[in-house]
Amino acid sequence: MEFNLLSSLFFYTTPILLLFVARKYYTSVKNLPPGPRPWPIIGNMHQMAKNPHIAAANFAKKYGPLISLRLGTRLLVVASSPEAAMEVLKTQDRHLSGRSIPDALQQSFIDYYFVWARDCNEHWKSCRTLCRAELFSAKAIEAQSNLRNEKLANMLGFLNNTQGRVVKIEELVFTTLINTLSNILFSKDFLDLKDDETAHRLKFGLLKILENSVTPNVSDFFPIIGGLDLQGLRKDSLNHLDELSSFSEAVVKERRARIAKKVVIAEHEKDFLDRLLENNFTTAQINILVLELFIAGTDTVVTTIEWAMAELLKNKNIMLKVQEELEQELNYTSIMKSDLSKLTYFNACIKETLRLHPVVPVLIPRRAVEACEVMNYTIPKNAQVWVNVWAISHDPKVWEDPNTFNPERFLGSNIDFTGHDYEFIPFGGGRRMCPGLPSGVKSLQTILASLILEYDWTLPNDEDPTKLDMTEKFGVTLQKEKPLELIFSRRE
Ligand code: HEM
Questions:
Q1: pLDDT of residue 3
Q2: Which residues bind heme (predicted)?
Q3: How far is the CA of 20 from the centre of ligand 1 (A)?
Q4: What SS3 state is found at 49?
Q5: Do 446 and 272 contact (CB within 8 A), yes or no?
Q6: What share of the chain is helix, strand, coil (3-state, %, to 5)?
């Protein structure tokens, strides 16, 4: 009886309270960027639907390059032109360098996040410094080359035995990348190319965490009721995080035991885990960091390779040109030893893939740590900020014929993805820019070059490649809705 009374009270008063809070908040902020009129309570939620990056790009056509939208009681500001992106990522980088942590990831270890660190705090700084020195510096990438070569050889060996069977590209590349990364981090393979089930479980867990972080969630729209976790996304993410931590936890335990026994290891044999332990990272901090590196460093590369292969299949003339360049410059044994950045046409294809299919379409959402001005509009403290890379990449005012896959546009051009050319920022920019760029690009180059050079690719059931379904699926990463499946046959 008492419970019924309380729940009815909650049911009837909550919407009124929310409406009041939202109204009070939004009428108090002056000079917000323009945008479509929000509905009471829900704001513009219903207008963002399945593909929010496209919906926001369409609003930008009407309201300008900086717009504001309301998602429940939350304010979202979206930058959709190179000029607006530059103001967010460069001019106001310090004020807009926070992350907006989705409710699904509001867990007890929130202070240990790297990718989702709320602001550029001391822990974030030590993660970034250590990762840059030990994983992503030119010296570190060079030191990883034997290991990468070995994992690449495993992948090609596996493909040689598929004998006309259909191969799911995302699973093949995912396993290769996880093992490359797990060896760099822990000197250990996490997966076996023949063991689909474990690979599937790991991939499912990582993707589920990403998916939960972008699933429309009432707790994000109305933080006042966040603690209730009405959709169970926080609980579900924690279950996956716990399960995935078990992959690393055992290794960390083993390593600590080795250190306790004072076993001496040569400097050049130490891996990333040794460095983390030397820097006094706790087991919980290591588990989260490793998970975030797996999340940030696998799906991005897998998805980009899948899009690149799909575009090359669709565009036979471009494929022939890349094959010709690779054949002239390399052969398989020299791929890891070659400087692949010298292959102009091949690299133009990688850039064009990242332009047409920017794998992180709105960057990882930023948060205003302080109120600031962008394009003469006010961005209030704690507003969420997207840089709509997808909109910039598909804007005919920025790119000629933007929907066509045309690597030639990058030939003889200095435009690069290093975060300074704001019309092309697939890795973001400013202090939260992707630190894994050198590692990601190395993986894209070596895996793609090997697959192009070594095999002819055909679609199952003699499907016509020019009719390949290129529908996108929105998420933190912009995936190909229908996974690419191919049959590989060795080239002469
Ligand atoms: C095709 C490959 C990749 C693409 C397109 C990509 C893209 C991005 C983007 C757009 C961001 C957000 C940047 C921003 O907010 O301005 C990001 C962040 C990040 N990426 Fe990547 N990434 C790739 C590969 C990798 C790899 C291989 C790793 C590591 C193994 C990695 C680790 C990270 C980390 C740790 C962050 C968070 C940085 C921070 O918040 O300070 N990424 N990435």
A1: 40
A2: 434
A3: 38
A4: coil
A5: no
A6: 55, 10, 35
Q: Ligand 1: which residue has its CA nearest to atom 37?
A: 115
Query: Distances in Å between the alpha carbon of 409 and those of 317, 416, 418, 419?
Result: 15, 12, 17, 19
pLDDT on residue 214: 82
User: Residue of the nearest CA to atom 6 in ligand 1?
Assistant: 427
The CA distance from 427 to 393, in Å, is 13
Strand partners, 75: 70
- The three-class DSSP label of residue 315 is coil
DSSP 309: H
> Of 297, 275, 276, 300, whose CA–CA distance to 287 is shortest?
276
By most ligand atoms within 8 Å of CB, the mutation choice from 300, 303, 416 for ligand 1 is 300
The residue whose two tokens read 């394009």 is 375
Ligand 1: nearest atom to the Cα of 440:
27
| Strand residues in 63-107 grouped as ranges (E) | 66-71, 74-79, 98-99
- Model confidence over 173-214: pLDDT tens digits? 999 999 999 999 999 888 777 767 777 778 888 888 888 888
Place of tokens 């190179």: 82
Q: Are 41 and 71 in contact, with CB atoms under 8 Å apart?
A: no
Q: How many CB atoms lie within 10 A of CB 232?
A: 11
Q: Encoding tokens for residue 212?
A: 């939960």
Give the pLDDT confidence score for residue 368 in this predicted structure.
Answer: 97
In this model, does residue 165 exceed pLDDT 90? yes
Tell me whether residue 120 is annotated as binding.
Answer: no
**Residue 39 and residue 70: Cα distance in Å, rounded?**
9
| Residue-wise pLDDT tens digits, 317-368 | 999 999 999 998 886 566 777 888 889 999 999 999 999 999 999 999 999 9
What integer pLDDT is reported at residue 10 of this predicted model?
Answer: 47
The 3-state DSSP class for residue 67 equals strand
Mean of per-residue pLDDT scores for the chain: 90
Q: What are phi and psi of 398, to 5 degrees?
A: -105, -40
Angle subtended by helix axes 283-314 and 122-131, to nearest 10:
60
- Name the percent of the chain lying above pLDDT 70: 93
State the distance from the centre of ligand 1 to the C-alpha of 433, rounded, in angstroms: 7
Q: What is the best residue among 101, 364, 432, 434 to mutate for testing ligand 1's pocket, by most ligand atoms within 8 Å of CB?
A: 434
To the nearest whole percent, how much of the chain has pLDDT over 90?
A: 70
| Pick from 89, 62, 65: nearest CA to 375 | 65
